[in-house]
């Protein structure tokens, strides 16, 4: 499928914003599309996992504030969007994240259980695509929403050379 000209829009709710998914009207792409590539310029490409949502106008993509900040998107900006299909042999093995409070005015001294945070992250964001530098909101238990930035990714690619051989790579 070739790219479509669409417009960036604001995510319609805080609840949807913390999914880390761009929102697409179900009539814009086939239901089997799980990820998109967004081009904002000749050499500026960003990957997003998507959710279909009827509350987004056709021809627009709903982005959360962290997504718009990361991809340098303005509301109403024209973007090129096409489905992105990760190779089925790629898998993320390790991700390094930097965490800070989303709203600096509402910080907390409450302790955060980093082991539980890692488990919750895996549950909340399974089957999503990530890119170094990506920014996202993370809701953890009843604590203040955190701003996460992807610092490093490590994965494996299974290469077909007569036999499968795993090779460690860094993204």
Automatic annotation (TrEMBL):
InterPro entries to which the protein is assigned, alphabetical: Asp_de-COase-like_dom_sf, Cdc48_dom2, CDC48_domain_2-like_sf, CDC4_N-term_subdom, Vesicle-fus_ATPase
Task: Please tell me the species this chain comes from.
Answer: Plutella xylostella
**Pfam families this protein is in?**
CDC48_2, CDC48_N
Query: By its UniProt entry, which PANTHER family does this protein fall under?
Result: VESICLE-FUSING ATPASE, VESICULAR-FUSION PROTEIN NSF
Q: How is the cofactor bound?
A: Binds 1 Mg(2+) ion per subunit.
Ordered alphabetically, the record's keywords are: ATP-binding, Cytoplasm, ER-Golgi transport, Hydrolase, Magnesium, Metal-binding, Nucleotide-binding, Protein transport, Transport
Q: What class of enzyme is it?
A: hydrolase
Its biological purpose: Required for vesicle-mediated transport. Catalyzes the fusion of transport vesicles within the Golgi cisternae. Is also required for transport from the endoplasmic reticulum to the Golgi stack. Seems to function as a fusion protein required for the delivery of cargo proteins to all compartments of the Golgi stack independent of vesicle origin.
According to its record, what are the GO cellular component terms?
Golgi stack
Matching entries from SMART domains are given as:
CDC48_N
Query: Where does this protein reside within or beyond the cell?
Result: Cytoplasm
What are the recorded GO MF terms, alphabetically? Answer: ATP binding; ATP hydrolysis activity; metal ion binding
Superkingdom, taxonomy of origin: Eukaryota
Where the record annotates domain CDC48 N-terminal subdomain, the positions are 5-86
Question: What is this organism's lineage?
Answer: Eukaryota, Metazoa, Ecdysozoa, Arthropoda, Hexapoda
Q: Which cofactor does it need?
A: Mg(2+)
| One GO process term, biological-process aspect | Golgi to plasma membrane protein transport
Location, primary (coarse class):
cytoplasm
**SUPFAM superfamilies, A to Z:** ADC-like, Cdc48 domain 2-like
Which reaction is this enzyme known to catalyze?
ATP + H2O = ADP + phosphate + H(+)
Q: Which family does it belong to?
A: Belongs to the AAA ATPase family.
Question: What are the EC numbers?
Answer: 3.6.4.6
Report what the protein is called: Vesicle-fusing ATPase
